[in-house]
Prior knowledge:
This protein is of the alpha/beta class. The chain has a single domain, classed as Spore Coat Polysaccharide Biosynthesis Protein SpsA, Chain A (Alpha-Beta Complex). It contains 9 helices and 7 strands; from the N terminus they run βαβαβαβαβαβααβαα. Strand 2, helix 2 (about 40-45) and strand 3 (about 50-55) form a beta-alpha-beta unit. Helix 1 (about 10-20) runs parallel beside helix 2. The chain is globular, with a radius of gyration of 16 Å. The two termini are about 30 Å apart.
Amino acid sequence: MVVPVLNEEGSLGETLRSLRAQTFTDFELVVVDNGSTDRSREIAAEFADRLLVETARGPDLARHRGFVEARTELLASADADTVYPPTWLARLVARLDVPGVVGVYGTMGFRESPPWRRALEARAFAALLRVSHALGVPFAGAANFGCRRSAYLQAGGYPAFAHLACADVRLARALRPLGRVVFDPRLVAYTSRRTLALQGPVGTAVQFLRIWVDIALERNRVPPRHYLAQLERRGTGRR
């Protein structure tokens, strides 16, 4: 399991505690620090089996570092601002163990929401993801994604898509010729609403549609500008 991190001291502890509380326990927890200036490394050291440092900036490159150094065939991807139900990893591994499956992804709710609202958010997002999946765009998010290492490397990994927005989705699409990429609406994780708060509902919807069209039509023109702007804010201590 790989978790990239950049200045996430406020949420990282809760994330890693939720991963250590998984019912499936036969895994290695790899945290890849991407240049944190806060206490993220210190917090990660309390929970991680291995703590790596990746100097090339960007979550995709940090995640790739963890994936290539992983010692297992099955890879699970998690985010430093996301919390995971205890059975999350067991479900992900069970889906990846099905013959012919090379990737799996699930839905999301917001960690800040009360439990009843989280469930509604996850179901609503799952409905959107089902439609996208049926239309040939597996809109996977790295916070809730797993794949086979051999297929990941064969598809080119994150570096092949790191210059574009939503590299996770592009990677999932590149995996499809190698086997089945499965969407599981019961594979749920709860992430931060930070991006939604920064862009607002309308801005988020517009950005989602813009990226979706870019991927569906294979234009490959939309760069990851929004994340890079967040990266600069975090790196200078601004929120």
